[in-house]
Write a structure and sequence with these properties.
Helix content: 25-40%
Largest sheet: 6 strands, mixed
GO molecular function: phosphatase activity
Strand content: 15-25%
Strand order of the largest sheet: 3-2-4-1-5-6
Order of helices and strands: EHEHEHHEHHEE
InterPro entries: His_Pase_superF_clade-1, His_PPase_superfam, PGM_Phosphatase
Protein name: Alpha-ribazole phosphatase
Shape: globular
Number of helices: 6
Pfam families: His_Phos_1
Structural class: alpha/beta
Distance between the termini: 32 Å
CATH architecture: 3-Layer(aba) Sandwich
GO cellular component, one term: cytoplasm
CATH superfamily: Phosphoglycerate mutase-like
Length: about 210
Amino acid sequence: MANNKPSPAQTTQPQTLWVDLLRHGEPEGERCFRGRQDDVLTSNGWQQMERAVTLCSRPERIISSPLTRCRAFAETLATRYQCPITIAPDWREIDFGDWEGLPIDRIDSTALSHYWADPLNHTPPNGEPLHHFQQRVLAAWAHFLATAQEQRVMIIAHGGTQRIVLAHILGIPLDRCHQGLAIPHACHSQLRIDRTPEGLFSALIAHRPPNEPY
């Protein structure tokens, strides 16, 4: 991991910060609840990410989840652009507990229906509660905003983490964010953050799900 301390030239934060949020591409394995499970990307998943980065600004820093489906591509991109990379554990996906790695059709249909209808109050057995996940991701987001020295940053993470940040910026309640935002593999969202005397102003500039099925 690169040294995260700013260089002497980076003594003040930029007034405008551009952030490209990217979900990882297609991982190996069947469709399942994949949170902490550490699968690699398929060749198609790598191609999806290569297409997605053509929509992004050239980053001055990359931040990545530690899970391989994010980290492997992030490290490749950091080498390509010769920019520092930060591996940030709090950007990892939600933990689905006993549902980890299970295909959808192997989960009790009643429990699954309750989860889809109200994930805030129906946590998978031994899983991470949604509000705890939100607190973790938003703490990572707040730390990033407080310490960012670069003007253009790329964050490569997961559908869940991307959804939490977007819901926060758009004012979507936690119990509605699962239904209000489509974030398929390699989905790209661009944010603009303005630092003003009145505080931070955040805006979603673009949201680009690729033209491919989930």
